[in-house]
Structure prediction request, 865 residues.
Amino acid sequence: MDTTVALIVNGQRHTLTTDPERPLLQVLREDLKLTGTKLGCGEGQCGACTVLIAGQRNHSCILPVKDAAGKAITTIEGLSTGDRLHPVQEAFVEEGAMQCGYCTSGMILSTVALLNEKPQPTDAEVRSWMNGHLCRCCGYPRILKAVQRAAAQTRR
Amino acid sequence: MALQTEETADSIEFDSAMNRRRFVQVLGAGLIIAVGCGPVLGQDRGGRSGGRGGGTGTVSTRLHIGNDGVITVLTGKIEMGQGARTELAQAAAEELRVPIARVQMVMGDTGLVPDDGLTAGSRTTPSTVPAVRRGAAAARMLLVELAARKWSVEPGTLEVSGGKITHAASRRTLTYADLAKSGEAAVVLRQRIPDDVSLTSVDQWRVMGMPISRVNRRDLVTGAHQYPSDYTRPGMLYGKVLRPPSYNARLLSVDLAPAKAMSGVVALRDGPFVGVAALTTLLAERALKAVTETAQWEIGSHPSSQELVGHLRNGVQGGVPRSRFAEELAQAAKKLLAVYQVAYVQHAPLETRTALAEWSDGRLTVWTGTQNPFGYHGELTRTFRLANENVRVIVPDFGGSFGGKHTGEVAIEAARLAQAAGKPVLVHWTREEEFIWAYFRPAAVIDIEASLDAQGRLTSWHFININSGAAAVNTPYRAGKTECRTVSSDAPLRQGSYRTLAATANHFARESFMDELAAATGADPLDFRLTHLDNPRLRAVVEEAAKRFNWRERVKQKQPGTGVGLACGTEKGSYVAACVEIAVNTAQDAITVQRVTEVFECGAVVNPDNLVAQVQGCIIMGLGPALREEMRFAGGKMGNAAFSRYLVPCFADVPQLDIHLLNRPDLPSAGGGETPIVAIAPAIANAVFHATGKRIREMPIRLRASQEA
Prediction:
């Protein structure tokens, strides 16, 4: 049964009528047309659908929209400020850390969440944190460098 | 099923009422599709037939100069993460003498671009880069001649830089933008590209040869780039297709009524095709579930992956040939015979198959991800009996492919549903659909038999690849009498291209077997290879990799639980060698690749930044099928059609990488997105032998060689 759900996405409040069990990913992409968040697997295994909810990373492909109601949701579209990229986005650009780029939104948001929690992660901590994200182009080496570059910038 | 001798994929029979009606072909050659948005490009379709990427024709077929001086380059190639957009922009910028920022690429839109063939076989670099360069160089030449005529001076007295033509003596200048605004550029660019147009020599390159990262990188980090699955059209519905419960299943009956009873749901049956479309994915999923529950199937038998080796061997008509080098075998000081196996694997691009189809006045437009836009276009014109000009396939840069998206099934599904719904429909396959219904990299069984003389030199070489294909089936080694070939079999799964085709399977078998032969003669694997290797380019990468890895020292150090291995190879005009160091944990059945040194040579490097990324990607992607990836099936059902059960390489697998590009500015550029994958698996198998004394002849390489279904 459809209900009314209030979502706060990238600082904007949206009220919509939808099935409360619908995955947040589908609502973001289909209703709000925020397509930067990607469908990769639908089972929380690849990280392409990662969004931040109250600063914590979440797999939006398996999260019922009702569980995100009223909380601050950040998608890739909400990370930059006007023309100014977020430092993590900047780091991915600088390192050329993308091939097809389909995993990139999730990688970036997960990095933001990591640096919120641990501003100075070790290499092992970065690998362990990012390990739930798949890049089928296997551009992992540059993504690791981008995360470390972002961490170094955060420290400054 | 067809053998993989070149880029291919098994097509699906779309048996339907529509197909059985008489097909009337309407020739559309020379017609121009009206373009609703974007620049209006005065062009003919002169390059349509350039199936191998040569794309000739007029200059205006290839590029357009805007009034702002922006160069729009048109190509039938597509971007899937391999870097073609950037590399082709470099090619145009180089020859037109403009900064790369002034070039924009229009790729893979059959309504706008010339047919440059499939984006496959590493052909963009050797074929399409030169084609774009020729078009751009011709444009520069024609514009210079135009300026020379206007000023009544010799073209040779003019210089071009930054898109500006200068006559230094009279201090006169004209920009490309000036000539575009006056309309004169468009007129001269209607001329054909001369065959003998001269290209900038490598030592003069200013844009090519430079490490330039993705031209559209900003859109990739902001989420602004629209992948095919991100496209929407007004009134668009989300489509879902009924899949059989197993392979070899035939639909007996289905009831669409429960789905049609759902508000806003469109349901369609046309022969075996059954699909639904609805306003949201969730509603479409529910409608599909309702339909699925009514479907009755007749289930046929299907071999299991555990029976695969016997199935493929028995499926060879006339039996698998044995070595015909009886004399050499009889006189051999040593002879060896081995059988290698390679499992079926899936490409699993992160963006699954997607198509958005829209009908308007009998015309069909499809946004999709494919390496084969014109092939797709052909599939759609045939399926829906449309004239060429009434189908337009648009391929936005999409989320990975690796040889896996040559066929147009998802577009046909979307187009059928859109036709039935009278609205645009997007079909975006689920991960499970992609794992089960996309075509696979073919499994292989490979027989090798060889003989050696008393000096440890090969005297005969017999190499038979069953089922997987001919890429790199021939040995680069001096091997006496040789026979290398492929035989087809009864393939149980739909199969097709995968990054470097069968070259991975053939290299796995050959390079493992070379190690076995080295061991049989007591020779060092490096020495044994070099003894049999004449090709100087292949020798160069092997020697460089061995040196960088410190092979001669490392191979002598026997450390418990670790091993080193070496492999090399060549395919598609490029050369690769890899040395690896692994750790083995026999108790846990674990092989960890700790370090990889890989040397790669593909002629003159066009973009070292992108090439390193491709080599990294190949090595790490190659770890998957080398160590874990394998489709497991039984009773017609796939047992591991999910990322949770089919484990692709992840961050934890990334070894220490030492990648070295051997640049050869004196040689033509070859593609680099495929061949770097071929050495990693055999190098690992050889390292396992070094560590344990155990020869594993199967991919995936496991210490305990047993498959759990």
